[in-house]
Amino acid sequence: MWESAIAVIGTLAGGLLVTITQQLTDRRQQREQHRERVADLTGQLLSAALRYRQLYWLRVDARRAGEPDPVVRADFYQARSDVTEARDRLALAVTDETLLRAAGRAAWSALDLSDIDPGVPEDGRYTPEIEARLEAARQRTHNAHTELRQAATGYGTTSAPGRAVDTRSQST
User: Fold this and answer.
1) DSSP state, 158?
2) Which pLDDT does position 163 carry in this prediction?
3) ∠ CA 37-149-115 to the nearest 5 degrees?
4) What backbone phi and psi angles, to 5 degrees, belong to 136?
5) Which domains does the chain carry?
6) How far is CA 68 from CA 59, 99, 114, 119, 154, in A?
7) How many CB atoms lie within 10 A of CB 50?
8) Which residues are CB-neighbours of 91 under 8 A, at least 6 positions away?
9) What whole-number distance in Å separates Cα of residue 105 and Cα of residue 84?
10) Which of 1, 25, 77, 94 lies 20 to 30 Å (CA to CA) from residue 15?
């Protein structure tokens, strides 16, 4: 009789162990899939913000050179919408405040570039005040971009320090 009881208990314990192991594996897989989705969404936001910044700086540089504006208004508006959409999609997928704050700063630092109307340059330069504002905005957008990349690097992992090497050249 004891042998039968031990056999039943062993079978039940084995089944329980398999169930627990499967649940842990499933949860780990779900966490990894979520982390990959967040990395993809973050990459989309970084790309959208970068595209918006490129269009803005193309416009500023063309004016400096006395050339016509190379940026079609519709492209500029679409780039703005792409930044907003990417930020919103990321916000729907995560609740991590550090990552969300970094995403907001990256998006808004890019979109806020439009608040700087450089006016008409003289001899290829804007006024000193405008040049200073442009340089400050350039630094702000670079820093926000790096901050978001770093926040995403550490997202969803306990071992990652949340810091990435800043690969941006100091000369730009």
Assistant:
1) S
2) 43
3) 110
4) -60, -40
5) 37-154 (1.20.120)
6) 9, 39, 18, 14, 43
7) 16
8) 100, 103
9) 12
10) 1
CA distances to 14, 15, 54, 142, 154 from 172, rounded to whole Å, are: 61, 61, 14, 10, 26
**CA-CA distance, 120 to 64, in Å (whole number)?**
8
Q: Are 91 and 100 in contact (CB under 8 A)?
A: yes
Mean pLDDT of the chain: 87
CB 87 within 8 A of CB 110: no
Pairwise CA distance, residues 128 & 8, whole Å: 84
pLDDT at 43 over 80: yes
- pTM for this model (two decimals): 0.78
